[in-house]
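Operator note (shift B, R.M.): manual run for Tfp pilus assembly protein PilN requested after the automated queue skipped it. Running by hand, logging everything below so the morning shift can see what happened. Input copied straight from the record, untouched. If output looks odd, do not overwrite the archive copy; leave it for review.
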Amino acid sequence: MLVEINLLPKRERKSRFMPLLSIVIAVLFIVGATTFYFIVQRMEQQIAQLKTELDQTKALRIAEEEKQKTATNASVGVQLQEAIQWAEQYPIHTIALLHELIERLPERGFLMNVSYARDGAIQLTAQFDTTRESAAYLQALKDASFITDVKLTSLTAVEEKAEEEGTMPRYIGQFSIQLNMEEWKKQQQGGGT
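Run finished. Output pasted below as returned.
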C-alpha cells in the first residue's frame, strides 16, 4: 500500500465573503457620499435664496423708511407752516399773560404749570398755603377783564415737610381758564391791565 504524503500546505478555499463585504461597503460609501453631496448642494442653494430674499427685504425696508421720512418731513413742514400762520394771526404775548397771571397770585402762591391752547384755553396749576388763598386767586382771575371764564377744577392737599415747623399741608389747585382773545389784544395794544 502506498501512502501519499503531501508536504505542501493545503490550499484553503478562498472565501467570497470578504470581497463581497468590501464591495458592499464601497457601494454604501459611494451612495452615502453622493447623498451627502446633494444635500449640501441643496442647502447651499436654499441659503443663497434666503440671502437674496433678505437683501430684497432690507432694500424694501430702507425704501419704506425713506418714504416715511419724506412724508414725515413734509408733514412736519406743513405743521410748522400752520403754526407760523397761526402765530402771525394771533399774536398773544405769553410773557405778558404770565405776568398778569402771576400778579394776581397771593403772596405765598406759586405757579407750577401753565399750558395754553390756540383757542385761548389755559390750564394752570398753582400751589397755595391755604384754601382761602386758592379762593382769593379764583376771584382775582374772575375779576380780570381779559378772562371770560375760570373754574377751579381740583384742589388737593399735599403734605410737605418744613424744617422748623414739621409737616405742613400745601394745596395744589388746578384752574381751567378761557381767555377773551379780543379783550386781551385790546389790552396789549392799549398797554393797560
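Quick read of the result: The longest strand covers residues 147-162. Strands lie at 110-116, 121-128, 147-162, 166-179.
Leaving this for review. - R.M.
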